[in-house]
């Protein structure tokens, strides 16, 4: 595949090695296999949305790097940006490529959408249609891996890694979460509540038509699963 001068095959190969090393110690909800799935999702969405080869290369690179030093593990909201910028700079990436990658990965997270909602909606930043679409593709690709059958598996894997209770009927899902409350979590956060606080909302937050269509089936699968879960929990099934 022909790629832009800003995103060369050598840079992509270096990013693969870098991300494998960075995520090696993480649990299976955010390991390198997650990155591979998000990357495949992103490539598929780029194809379905008719994105150019140059933009697809940018999407590919951002999908690879989007979870480096994730705040859920690093404890720092700015760790991803710092690590990715340092990596790309060390690889000799040009300033425009670095700017575009950082723009995309800064918009992947659910917490950023909560912050934008609290501010009255996402502000216009004159990024341009191509870059906005690229960011939407990577965000949708990541969110598709958070829902459906794999999303369910990842949710329970992460909950187990954090020693969360599976379910507590006495603890209702939190409503109207702020970015700060979402990041803080709380002692009574349960794995099942995460579906209602985040995962079931993602279908309505997809940015691309293709992502929205794929999300429909995955969302329905989660709803069916939760219905069965609650029936079994109550001893009715």
SS element count, helices = 12
CATH topology: Hypothetical protein af1432
β content, as a range? under 5%
User: How many strands?
Assistant: 0
Rg from alpha-carbon coordinates: 18 Å
Rounded average pLDDT: 91
* N to C succession of SSEs: HHHHHHHHHHHH
Helix content: 55-70%
Please tell me what the overall shape is: globular
Largest sheet descriptor: none
Overall structural domain count:
1
Fold topology:
Layout: H1 9-23, H2 32-48, H3 53-65, H4 71-74, H5 79-90, H6 95-105, H7 110-118, H8 129-144, H9 148-161, H10 179-184, H11 191-197, H12 209-233
Characterise this structure.
- This protein is mostly helical.
- It has one domain (9-233): Hypothetical protein af1432.
- It has helices at 9-23, 32-48, 53-65, 71-74, 79-90, 95-105, 110-118, 129-144, 148-161, 179-184, 191-197, 209-233.
- Helix 1 runs parallel beside helix 3 (53-65) and helix 8 (129-144) runs parallel beside helix 12 (209-233).
- The radius of gyration is 18 Å and the shape is globular.
- The model has no long low-confidence stretch (mean pLDDT 91).
List key phrases describing it.
single chain; mainly alpha; Hypothetical protein af1432; globular; HD/PDEase_dom; HD_domain
Quick overview of this protein structure:
InterPro entries: HD/PDEase_dom (IPR003607), HD_domain (IPR006674). This protein is mainly α and 237 residues long.
